[in-house]
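Fill-in record for Response regulator.
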Amino acid sequence: MYKVLIVDDEPLFLDFLRTVLNWESLGFAICGEARDGQKALELTRKTFPDVVLVDINMPNMDGMELSQRLKQNDPDMAIVMVTGNAEFQYARDALRIGVEDYILKPFDSDELFLTMVKIKSYLQRTREYRQRDRDHVLWLREQFLNMLISTNLSITEAETRGQMQRFGIPAESGRYAVITVEIDHLYKRWSDHKEILLWKNTVSNLLHEIIAWPGQNIVFFGPEDRIVSLFQPTPDCPDPTGETESLQRLCDMVKKHFKFSVTVGVGSLQFGYTGIRASYMESMAALQSKIILGTGGVIRYQDSDRTPHGFYSSEINEKMMLALRLKDENEMKQLLEEVFRYVREQRLSAEMTYVTVFGLVSICLSHIVASGKDIGAVLGDGFSPYQELQQQETLDKTYHWVEQISLKTLQINNDDNKPSRSRKVFEEAKLLIEQNFRDPGFNVEEITKQIFINGSYLRKIFHKEASMSVSEYITHTRMQRAKELILRKQVSVTAIAEMTGYSDPGYFSKCFKKHVGVTPSEYEAQSKAGNSANFTNV
């Protein structure tokens, strides 16, 4: 229900506005009335209306000044100017202020009805845009946080600080500790991605509320359906990671009330932004050791450090996830061969081999769920990695078993309503190119900084989605715009070069001919001759 404030100095007209429509049936409710602009301004601070119907001629503060001040306070507030003055100057001033509509007295109920229907559409559209903007910011925030724990921090410390401030994250380059929570046997317990998301949100909310350490606690979703906490203690706080009582309480509460278990890996306290990645890797090393120390508890990195070593590089996991997203079968097979060659060369124990294999299978299961698919539908009803792994008699058979799981995962169809992560990154990058191609300095590195993505991953996405490199796509966008400007015949080639991101007109002409097949002047001449249709899609 949208709230409406009506403002007019004539009592009879206020009565008319109040009763002329069935406001509730239209989705509106009258939240207040005022007879002058000053009282109306005060009333908006108490009632927070979505729509204000404003008369122009009023005592103390007229409708023009009131509308201007209301728009300054809340640009999204819809204002309908109601007046008996039909002079064009009033209408022009109202539009300049940002008034949504202008209705002349006298008017009947139909005119007001149509006006309010239009205003309702405006409010609905504005809310949708605001929600989309909020969702976009949340997505970028999670992308940024995942970049902080990823392999390479591709932006400078100053840029990192700026992005942290942008997303409301404490930006002091001080001390950080990373806590990673893993829901034990996640894919064995649930296969529906909506149910998995529900429980991830539940654990995430508990983790956010339950940490009793003094400082800032930022919780987000990390790779492979894990929940990650980036914790920054207060300057006067000693190392809090030695106190794990609150984290153990999280494990106990989940087990008691939800009947499943979580294991928490705690990285050590590190310094600076680069220390975030180091602490995250320590928390992952702690989690890997749960095969020895058991599940359903808290494992500090110092504890895991005393367990037998022998884990392959975590970068292979990241490369494996990338290969699955991009459906790169050759890369996936090479990575599997590398892992199993490591197992042989290091002569890992059966226990360590199981940990390694379960890590690979977990990546596949995570990808299936993230794609919105049912694990049983992809890998077979009743799929149980624990039981099936026990049935593999040799390392070669184990390799072929993992390879088959990986191939089935690779072949799942991602063309459902939920866009893949790579597609979403592609669309975000395209939008940035559309917004920034006029800047001569705009390049691939700028895109990677703004959407927090690895450069090589971005290039693979563009080859997959657009069958061209990122640089080629930027050039393609510039050339398309250049062709449009040439056909308008309103500006010079020099101006067009500047408007499409080229500071040197000669270089622009050279690029244009390479891309289109003719020079800008030849293209313009052919358009005059009526042949431009042969080139507009080049």
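KEY FINDING: The first strand starts at residue 2 and ends at 7.
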